[in-house]
Amino acid sequence: MVSIPAGHPYPQAIHADLPGARVLKDPVVDPADPARWWPHRALDPEFWDTDPARDVDLVHLHFGFEHLSPARTRDFVDLLAARDIPLVLTAHDLDNPHLVDQTDYHAQLAILLPAARHVFTLSHAAADRIAHDYGVTAEVTHHPPIVTDPAAVAPRRRAGSAGVFLKSLRGNVVADPRFYRDLAAGVPAEVYAHTDARTPALETTVDHWHEPMDDQELHDTIAAHSVVVLPYTRGTHSGWMRMCRDLSVSVAVPDCGCYASQADDPRAVATYRAGDGADAARAVRELLAAGPVPPLPVPDVTFRHGQLYAALAGERGRA
């Protein structure tokens, strides 16, 4: 099968112990950066005339298709249909966090969602929106754990503190320093950002300028806080939400997207008005008052995906 992508942590977690399935590695896009999988070659028609594509009997599309036009997206699903290759779609993003104008992206979803033989998504709120906007039924699945061994994380929690992680300040992260000043005025908060995002406007707002952290350092740093604030202005779901919950950290989320609905336990999430730092501080205080909430067990998502893949491959074999 082809997973688009295969090398990202989310599909890797799903496929790690998948019996009877061979997942093709992501084609190399840039020999100078072999870990880079985007733009994925399997979205190009030329890929399907290469040797690796000959035995493909299923495609699972996750993300990384926003560079296609709606017309090229239609060509992709038509190509799969012509070859009788079933498409599985996990709708991670109903609003793409990388895009300001969502028009073409929504047009892509209007093509992909009905074309898929099966649709997964990560929250009930997203499933409701898919049904309402696209007339498609989506199965809600759980985001697989990101921190596979929480016990290995250094227990250095500073009770009563919130962490905000800007990374390289991608397009859906609040860039207005007033948000972070208002947050810090209402609750003890520490703001982290990559050094490549350093700007005069944020110079005095960010507490920790740093190079990208490795997984252990990142997990230790997140676990040092009682609450993490997701400073997003758009998007749908968040791997950071899953990572925080793996570490028993509660999460303050904006009222856009489906972030609150993704939480494993409603006691571990509080919603604030997107872009409003004072309201984010109010959400953090609510979570601090509630105390730590251990994560709920995550069902075996690999087993469910394996069931589905086997069923679709079996249907294709009987066609």
TrEMBL record:
Respond yes or no to whether keyword Transferase is given for this record. Answer: yes
Any single GO molecular-function term of the entry would be: glycosyltransferase activity
Recite the UniProt keywords alphabetically: Glycosyltransferase, Transferase
Domain Glycosyltransferase subfamily 4-like N-terminal residue range list: 22-140
* Superkingdom of the source species: Bacteria
Enumerate the SUPFAM superfamilies for this protein. UDP-Glycosyltransferase/glycogen phosphorylase (SSF53756)
On whether Transferase is a keyword of this UniProt record, the answer is yes
Q: What is this protein called?
A: Glycosyltransferase subfamily 4-like N-terminal domain-containing protein
